[in-house]
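Thread: GLP complex, take 2
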Amino acid sequence: MEVLIFPDALSLARKSADLVESQIKAFPDSVIGLATGSTPLGLYEELIMRHAEHDLSFAQVKTFNLDEYVGIPSNHPQSYRTFMDKNLFNRIDIDQSNTQVPDGMAENPLATGPAYEKMIEDSGGIDLQILGVGTDGHIGFNEPTSSLGSITRVKTLTQQTIEDNSRFFSPNEFQPKLAITMGIKTILDARRILLLAHGENKSNAIRDMIEGPLAAFCPASALQLHQRTTILVDEAAASKLSLKGYYKFVGEMQDELVRKHRPSDWISR
Ligand code: GLP
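Output below.
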């Protein structure tokens, strides 16, 4: 795992946008896996700005979102489809028909997983997957004890996740307790992964993911198996890492190697 530590959320967002931009510029028809939540908002704002002020085009990009709540329609204010439309898709030149979010209102939610997997496969697979992390170490909605070999399916949310996400719902509003989520295997199949986290409330999950054992109890720890994962964290999220100094040293050595020997191995396909 490559661990990059930033002084604040803004510099982290800019660096993650640099990485996404180089992927799209190298392969304009890239397939990007997207996440919701407050963490990737800075990245999305940067991408929108680069689209408006520079020549970053999403015209040929395809996207697959990680997850969606079960039981609320796509036009519901708290659906992840609405989140993506509002915070990214409606503000860039992406073709809406190239954007996929699991259908939380499917007649039989249990049948949606294999179809979503097939769509990802038919697109050629995900080139770059963006991830956040839950305070309990979940990625997508793969809650603790999710199978490390799981594919897209319905998951029941933990009380902690329901509480963490209750800030988006009004006090008496229906809040879903089920979600359709890409599985851990689906995520690990992406060619490149970027996981972003900021804030002290993510520090336990970040420590367990990077330095803890590989265990379904911390689903994000499955990323230890992935060959091309970059973790971008701010100082607060990195505060419980015991090898923090080492990760910074690795970053310096890596920069030197890249400067001397090759431009960058960042682009995937
Ligand atoms: C939700 C999403 C995750 C996201 C997590 C963290 O549970 N399903 O994909 O990573 O929230 O959210 P936030 O970035 O708001 O902390």
